[in-house]
Amino acid sequence: MNMIKLGALSSVLMTLAGCSTMGGAPDFVPSDPEAMTEWQVEGSVKLKNDDGRKEAFITYKQINGEYELEVRQDRPIGEPVAVVKGKEGEGAAAEQITAKNPQAEKLAKSLQASLPLNNMAYWLRALPATENAKVTKKEDELAASAISDDGWKIKYDNYMQIDRYLLPDQIEMEKGDTEVEIELVRADTAFITSPCPVNYTPGDLSAESVNTPAGNPVDALVPRDGSAPLPRWINDEEFCKQLYKVHGRIPDPRVGLYGPDSMFWKLSAPLAPGGMGAGRALLLQTAHPWVTAGIDEHSIVRYDPMERFRRTFSNISTMVYGSMPQVLNAANKVRASHKEIKGKIPYRAGAFHKDSAYGANEVNAMVWVHATLWETLVYMYEELEEPLTQAEKDRFYEETKLFAMLFGIPESALPRNWNEFMAYNEAMWYSSQLTVTDNARKLKEDLFTPRSIWLVFPLWIQEVVTASNIPAPIREGYQMDYGLWERFNNAWLMGSAEFTSWILPDYLGVNPVDHEAHARLEGKRNDYFHRKQIEAVMGTDRLVN
Amino acid sequence: MVRKAVLLLVLAGWCAGISLVVQAMGIPQIQYLTQEQFVQQTFGSTQPQWKMLILDAALKQKAAEILLHPYPGMRVRYWIAGQRTAWIIDEIGKEMPITIGVAVDGDSIQQVKILVYREERGGEVHQDFFTRQFESVTLTGDERLSRSIDGITGATLSVHAVSRVANLVLVMHRQVLAKAAVPGM
Questions:
Q1: Among residues A291, A281, A464, which one has the least CA distance to residue A375?
Q2: Are A131 and B50 within 8 A, CB to CB?
Q3: Which residues on chain A are in Cβ contact (under 8 Å) with B72?
Q4: Please, what is the angle between helix A271-286 and helix A456-469, to 10°?
Q5: pLDDT band at residue A482 using 50, 70 and 90 as cut-offs
Q6: Of A306, A452, A533, the CB nearest to B26
Q7: Contact (CB, 8 A) for A273 and A381
């Protein structure tokens, strides 16, 4: 028994040692938080002064120079009991308080009297509020460790990486007899009021999208005569219009696009289906000559697949699990990175002629990339977890339409239901639109060639499982081996994945981003282990908190 | 107990292995200069106190015309000594912000430096052959750069971002000096 205990203790120590080696993104250098025009932070405040001690949960929001302090008494989320509103530069006298009851009003007034809310707009971002401020920053630190400003001494004990910013999460403030402790749990750094950058205009939201096909959407995506589909480019206005439509459908921005009752969260929670299906989805995508051309000419995938994986999956995970501001931030980032991915196909490839134009922001290509993700997720979920009913697939497919709209794809351009969606997938597998070119085969070789001893086994698993589960015409296109040996290996690998998924407690077997999203819904911070898990893979310990 | 021990052991290996791979393979966000180093390069050993330029409606509009998007923020911090100012501004090239330092002396640019480059491609903009093009550039009558800046193949968006920021800084510098020249402002 002692040996077992010793073994367990050793394992715990090794786990801690292993996880302690996990660092953040390489050389992360934060952007200047001064550039945040709409943002909010959430947490708790403890106030001690002559009037005694007071505690409250707070949300501090600043939008284009106007600020708002929401006060909650007993729980970190839900309707605030009081709100203090003000405008930068107008001072406390111009601030307005609305409260639900006299007790809440008293608490809000006490906070307002003790905290210079105007200056808090800067101090909560670790920025000086006035020109006379003295900022202390140690040489090896990326942000201020202390600020003396307007008579206050502010100490920053810890920071959280939120998107590209570093914001303080433990703040101690002192002025005379007043002492304030602020602990912040999470933040949104953009897209709180508008789903698009302010210079975008959505146009007439009720008007039909210019990318709506004339007839059946599947016929437009996969023309029956085998020709390439007519390109339908997604311009800024069309992209913004779809974001506005998504924005209008979401009742609670904290929950985000889906939430815990959604099929999306159910299918994305177990790690095995997404993990085992990654290679399948990727090779289905790169079988499209536009995708390979885009990668060849514009992407770092070939020489740094891990960084591309990290950026892609942090955006996808954020869209699935993030709050609405986080979701919209990710959508806009992807749009920006896709904008420059355009060019001409340098060779004839199946239905696509030499020198025909390609681009990332195009409906047909984007629908295909989406289809590979969600068809693969359902396929692998059913293989490794449990079969889904038709109703569940229909529900999941309806949810994927919102995801597609985040890329500017109008609902009218998508297959109408799950069955039509599967018919589209099968039509694509056998169409000349999917043509595995020499470049795609080379890309496959690059992707499955391990660049570290740690990746030898995972990439071998991916290759075997991908060859065994990808549709036959695509497998043949990539010239992947699929004999008795591969079938045998696939059987035990899939069986092991299924068994591991079953045996692992949710704490270990469920996607850490799923844990993080649940923590956000409760107004809490993700726990240490899951933060470190996210950091190990994504390079930041917070994605959707 | 045994099952937990095995699980934890596997987890330890996974944590350490994946972490090593991720750290070894990620693209670093390259910091060429810190804020302090840039200010010191501009002003020498006597670093001036920073100031704030509050963006009024007219300046916001001008900034939006130059940047092709609204300036994200209500104020801009800068350092000033005599006729010389230093500015550090983040501007997105393609996907990530580039931290750009611009120093202006009198009415012309003294130096442009890339402090942090975060994009996947286009990092050549930090090199001297590119940034030297901005030296001695002034504003034209219609408040544009007095010299056209040669691009770099594969770094078009980064080149544009740096040029826009240099243009904006010259406009803000002019405003700061004009305000300083008016007694009481």
A1: A281
A2: yes
A3: 35-37
A4: 70
A5: very high
A6: A306
A7: yes
Note whether A11 contacts B9, CB cutoff 8 Å.
yes
Q: What is the mean pLDDT of chain A?
A: 89
- Amino acid identity, position A175: K
Domains along chain A with CATH numbers = 33-188 (2.50.20.10), 232-503 (no CATH)
Cα–Cα distance for residue pair A76/A316, rounded to 1 Å: 27
pTM (two decimals): 0.87
Query: Strand runs (DSSP E) across chain B, as ranges?
Result: 30-31, 50-54, 75-81, 84-92, 97-105, 108-117
Contacts A199 to B, Cβ<8 Å: 64, 68-70
Q: Which chain A residues are Cβ-neighbours of B48 within 8 angstroms?
A: none
Locate the domains of chain B by residue range.
29-181
In angstroms, how far is the first alpha carbon of chain B from the final one? 74
- What is the three-class DSSP state of B121? coil
d(CA B177, CA B107): 10
Interface test with A, best of B3, B4, B31, B95 (most A CBs within 10 A): B95
- Integer angstrom CA distances of residue A388 from A119, A372, A393: 53, 18, 7
Check if the beta carbon of residue A534 is closer than 8 Å to that of residue A23: no
Instruction: Give the ipTM.
Output: 0.81
Element (H, E) at A461: helix A456-469
> pLDDT value at position A303?
65
Closest alpha carbon within chain B to A16: B12
What residues of chain A lie within 8 A of the CB of B88, using their CB? 32
- The partner residue sitting opposite A29, judged by closest CB among B14, B74, B116, is B116
Question: How far, CA to CA in Å, does A377 sit from each of A282, A380, A385, B116, B176?
Answer: 12, 5, 11, 38, 57
